[in-house]
Write a structure and sequence with these properties.
The protein has 1 helix and 13 strands. By secondary structure, it is mostly beta strands. The strands form 3 sheets. It has a 6-stranded antiparallel beta sheet, with no helix packed on it. It has a 5-stranded antiparallel beta sheet with strand order 9-8-11-6-13, with no helix packed on it. The two termini are 31 Å apart.
C-alpha cells in the first residue's frame, strides 16, 4: 500500500497494490495490521455504502462530541470528488480542505480522522461509495456545514444547477456560524 500525505496532517490517501490479469483484478482493500503500520491504530466498527447519481452532493457531515467518527472511504464503481474539511478550532489548518478524486478505476482510499467534516460530489453517471467508521452512527450527534460555504472555497466540479441535495444538506450552517465544532 502506498501512503500519500496531504496538506492537512492526518488526512492521507491510500493506494492499494492491485493485481491484474486477463481474469480481472484482485486487491486487499483493508488490513488492520497494514493500516496501523502505515496510518495508525484505528478500530473500525461500522461499514456503510451508498449509491448516488451524477450531481449528488452528500455533505459536509460530521458526528459531534463522543460520537465523532474517523472514516476510511472508497469508491467501488464510478467517480467522486471526496472532500475533508478541518473543523478543529485549534488546528492550524482550521477551515482548510483536502479534495481527492476517488474512483472504481483508481481504487484510491481517503482516511479522514475525527475532527473533520466529510462530503463528496458524484462526477460519474452512477457511484457506489463505501466507508468504514470507527464509531457507530448516532442520529442525535449528526451535524454538518454548508457544502457551498464560499469561505471554504471548494470546487465540487459539478455545475450548481446540476447539484442534487438532501433537504438537510440544503440548509446547513456556514462554518463561521457553527457552534458544535471540535
Amino acid at each position: 500500500m502506498n501512503v500519500i500525505k496531504t496538506d492537512i496532517e492526518g488526512v492521507v490517501i491510500l493506494e492499494p497494490r492491485v493485481f491484474k490479469d486477463d481474469r480481472g483484478y484482485f486487491f486487499e482493500s483493508f488490513s488492520e495490521r497494514d493500516f496501523a503500520e502505515a496510518v495508525g491504530s484505528v478500530h473500525f466498527v461500522q461499514d456503510n455504502e451508498s449509491r448516488s447519481s451524477y450531481g449528488v452532493v452528500r455533505g459536509l457531515h460530521f458526528q459531534k462530541g463522543e460520537n465523532a467518527q474517523a472514516k476510511l472511504v472508497r469508491v467501488i464503481e464510478g467517480t467522486v470528488l471526496d472532500v475533508a474539511v478541518d473543523i478543529r478550532r485549534d488546528s492550524p489548518t482550521f477551515g482548510k480542505h483536502v479534495a481527492v478524486e476517488l474512483s472504481g478505476e483508481n481504487k484510491r482510499q481517503l482516511f479522514i480522522p475525527r475532527g473533520f467534516a466529510h462530503g463528496f460530489s458524484v462526477l460519474s453517471e452512477l457511484v457506489v461509495f463505501q466507508y468504514k467508521c470507527d464509531n457507530y452512527y448516532c442520529p442525535a450527534s449528526e451535524s454538518g456545514i454548508a457544502w457551498d460555504d464560499a469561505a471554504l472555497g471548494i470546487d465540487w466540479r459539478v455545475p450548481r444547477e446540476a447539484v442534487v441535495l438532501s433537504p438537510k444538506d440544503a440548509c446547513r450552517q456556514k462554518l463561521n456560524e457553527a457552534v458544535d465544532l471540535f
